[in-house]
């Protein structure tokens, strides 16, 4: 994988964690965690230097893909300040998630990283366990494992999960389709904690993505994520340990949540 892709994934992984179940168009996942109109913004910084901004938005209205109602989720990221001069990033990721089954039906990405450009659309056929990717005018069909996700949709399913049923230290392995490949992503639930943000203190769940050895990251568990310990389960803080230092992500603003976060 290209270095630029690893750096992009580092940002995405700090924001999005993934889970899965058997696909069934008739199933209904109880969802009290998110809905249309939600918007969350983050600031990514390297020490005291602002490095990037990220935004996660759910469309104000329901979209339709293959006659199924879907949440349209947009994720955008951009470098700022000095980082924008060194490595300019303007990325947009989009997932259309079945409102009942909480599984992706379509995924899109528009990548601008310095001179690198890539636009891709992926259609998911869960009945046949296929991902159909179109880049420019070339379409390829990939066989994928059952319960495949894109890197956005699984996080939204995760938000519906009951962490009372998950043991501290438990590792979840997730098959995910990205850039023409299937990755077995592994995540560890590291228990509960309390953190301080610009809005005050609040209770959180600690989640650590586990990644293969890589020369860009430092330590055995270089990525850490703190998610609100409530029905929302939105990321409030993240940290990525790099060989050359660490990147941190903090909550900048939010609105449209299903339930107000309890600060103290």
From TrEMBL:
Top-level taxon of origin: Bacteria
Any one Pfam family match given in the protein's UniProt record, by short name: DUF3108
Protein name: DUF3108 domain-containing protein
Source lineage: Bacteria, Pseudomonadati, Bacteroidota, Cytophagia, Cytophagales
Organism, as annotated: Dyadobacter sandarakinus
